[in-house]
């Protein structure tokens, strides 16, 4: 429902972290990009700073899992567009969810960070002009994200959905592009999805969704 | 993946029943329509008979929940096409999953039952000509099924997906149409979906899905 502008938070960060120590998301009002790594939730903000969430912040959307990476490969260089094909050499995964972690040194990283919106909220695509884009070069850090099968787009973002946080926890966001130096690509095949919907939230449960075709198209375009 | 013809079973009936006492599904090879009611799994077969599953049967797809119906309304008459609108008078539900039970006497019920397929399996739409259609009049029984938001079509069948079993457990199937006498409509709003994918099954994990647009269209047509 983020696509339709339902940016109100429906779960606290501390409650979310009970379900996993690794993940991605956003905060109330579409306030930045979340990166959850080693049990800490970092919030990359549109002003270029990164905060650690205290726990009482409300979140409208997030994906988390309990990390238990089962496979890894060290690569001399990796481009964002090649993550799919690189992973496919290692395992069959396209019909399920996969947690993906890439850590090491990056030659170039480009992120975008969504900007906090005020009520009445616009739609997700209307916020695109407010997004900030950031570039970094020769930076150590970690890519945190998920692969979601196209069939389950809507429950998550179909395909690869990757965020980034640097080793100093001072630079991060939703990944638009990267090119790495030597990195370690780790993966964890997940056997499903435990989808939790905020049915007690009247805005959520009473919302009349926009046409699904439009929603799916908007999600693809925003990627 | 049923749409693409992956009819091989991936979970036993007894294991499925640990996750719920109410639900619907099908069996290995697309062998009939399952109705799970009061913890018993009934299998309506294409020859018009109904069996009780023993527990060791393998199932390729099912939806179950632990029943705890929170609301009910007694109606003098209900048509299948009116279930959506009738429920909407009672609660807001369109953005989440709902378990639906309708019990009482039915003036007319029309079901279809899919027929067991042999390997190599055809696609779901290719099996349509093999389906059997059954009609019953003035029959006591129960409608068992779910509402799935269109956004989650793929994880389940979008919209209403209803099966039927008569009170004698001798007539059942996937509902094509019904018109009731006096019935009780019960509902249970579910706060999400615990999706379990058979990632250990090599047929599942290695399958290259057909185009999503085609899949979604096929599902809609088969309804």
From TrEMBL, chains A, B:
Q: Which domain of life is it from?
A: Bacteria
Known catalytic reactions: (2S)-2-acetolactate + H(+) = (R)-acetoin + CO2
Q: Which GO terms describe its biological process?
A: acetoin biosynthetic process
Q: What is its EC number?
A: 4.1.1.5
Keywords tagged on the record = Acetoin biosynthesis, Decarboxylase, Lyase
Give the matching InterPro entries. Answer: Acetolactate_a_deCO2ase
Which pathway does the protein contribute to?
Answer: Polyol metabolism; (R,R)-butane-2,3-diol biosynthesis; (R,R)-butane-2,3-diol from pyruvate: step 2/3
Keyword Lyase belongs to the record: yes
GO molecular-function annotation terms?
acetolactate decarboxylase activity
- Name the family: Belongs to the alpha-acetolactate decarboxylase family.
Kindly provide the name given to this protein in its UniProt entry.
Answer: Alpha-acetolactate decarboxylase
């Amino acid at each position: 429902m983020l696509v339709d502008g339902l940016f109100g938070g429906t779960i606290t960060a501390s409650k979310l972290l009970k379900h996993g120590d690794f993940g991605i998301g956003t905060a109330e009002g579409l306030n930045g990009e979340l990166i959850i790594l080693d049990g800490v939730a970092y919030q990359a903000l549109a002003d270029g700073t990164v905060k650690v969430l205290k726990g009482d912040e409300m979140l409208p959307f997030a994906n988390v899992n309990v990390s238990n990476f089962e496979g890894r490969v060290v690569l001399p260089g990796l481009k964002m567009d090649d993550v799919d094909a690189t992973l496919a050499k290692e395992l069959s995964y396209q019909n399920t969810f996969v947690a993906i972690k890439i850590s090491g040194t990056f030659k170039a990283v480009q992120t975008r960070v969504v900007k906090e919106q005020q009520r009445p909220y616009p739609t997700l695509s209307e916020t695109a002009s407010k997004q900030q884009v950031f570039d970094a070069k020769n930076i150590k850090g970690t890519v945190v994200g998920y692969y979601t099968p196209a069939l389950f787009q809507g429950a998550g973002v179909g395909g690869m959905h990757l965020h980034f946080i640097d080793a100093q926890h001072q630079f991060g966001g939703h990944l638009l592009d990267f090119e790495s130096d030597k990195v370690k690509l780790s993966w964890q095949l997940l056997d499903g999805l435990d989808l939790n919907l905020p049915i007690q939230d009247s805005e959520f449960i009473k919302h009349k969704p926009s046409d699904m075709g439009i929603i799916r198209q908007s999600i693809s375009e925003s990627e």
